[in-house]
Amino acid sequence: MTAWLRSQGDAVNHKRVARLLRTMELETVYPTPRLSEPHPAHRVYPYLLRGVPITRVNQVWSTDITYIRLHGGFVSLVAVMDWFSRYVLSWAVSITMDVGFCLEALEQALAVARPDIFNSDQGAQFTSVDFTERLTAARIQMSMDGRGRALDNVFVERLWRTVKYEEVYLKDYETPREAMQGLAQFFVRYNEWRQHQALGYRTPASVYFNSSI
């Protein structure tokens, strides 16, 4: 598209074209990464949070994976969030979809605190023996979204929308290193500077660290 517009005499670059296509909600048709696919041999745990009031920090954490587009492909991003405060306890990026980067994010989060319940989808990373045994060892209850029920993990879904519209789409990363640098800056802003209406216009960090744990 950029090359064709230039051939018509329009002075544009690929970033401007990409931004305009997103504004018009147009995208190319090609296979997208298949994230969090279930594994038929892994145990799936029930969803424990339907109708449960979330009243304090470290009551429920949740996690999810999304993909970040680069010029030459994509990287996978995982984050661990506290539901009550919306605080992002940890995150990690990987060029593969194995469980390693999810365990990395989990260990970083557990170095901060321990939740009562840990919620995820039914993806193979989160149902893997390595991941579930780490939660069991920490005496954490496991909860998993129902298939096709994105709203079961709505807080992380909202986080991904914020990440993409306020950081990724604006920066248009070229390399994994550039993505990691940009995301590191974003999560500091999100946790420490971004005020949430649902939190009484406080930041996630102020709610998380000034609440009774």
Q: Can you put this structure into words, describing what you see?
A:
With about 210 residues, the chain is an alpha/beta fold. The protein has two domains: about 1-30, no CATH class; about 60-210, Ribonuclease H-like superfamily/Ribonuclease H (Nucleotidyltransferase, domain 5, 2-Layer Sandwich). It contains eight helices and five strands. It has a five-stranded mixed β-sheet with strand order 3-2-1-4-5, sandwiched between helices. A hairpin with a 2-residue loop joins β1 (about 60-70) and β2 (about 75-80). α6 crosses α7 (about 175-190). The longest helix has 18 residues, at about 155-170. The chain is globular. The N and C termini lie far apart (about 50 Å).
Oligomeric state, counting identical vs distinct chains: single chain
**What's the arrangement of strands in the largest beta sheet?**
3-2-1-4-5
**In CATH terms, what is the architecture of the largest domain?**
2-Layer Sandwich
Shape: globular
Helix percent reads 25-40%
Determine and state the CATH class of the largest domain: Alpha Beta
Strand content: 15-25%
Radius of gyration of CA atoms, rounded to a whole number: 19 Å
Number of helices: 8
CATH topology of the largest domain, what is it called?
Nucleotidyltransferase, domain 5
Distance between the termini: 52 Å
Secondary structural class: alpha/beta
User: CATH superfamily assignment of the largest domain?
Assistant: Ribonuclease H-like superfamily/Ribonuclease H
Biggest β-sheet: count, sense, barrel? 5 strands, mixed
Domains (count): 2
**What order do the helices and strands follow?**
HHEEEHEHHEHHH
**Contiguous runs where pLDDT drops below 50 for at least 5 residues:** 24-32
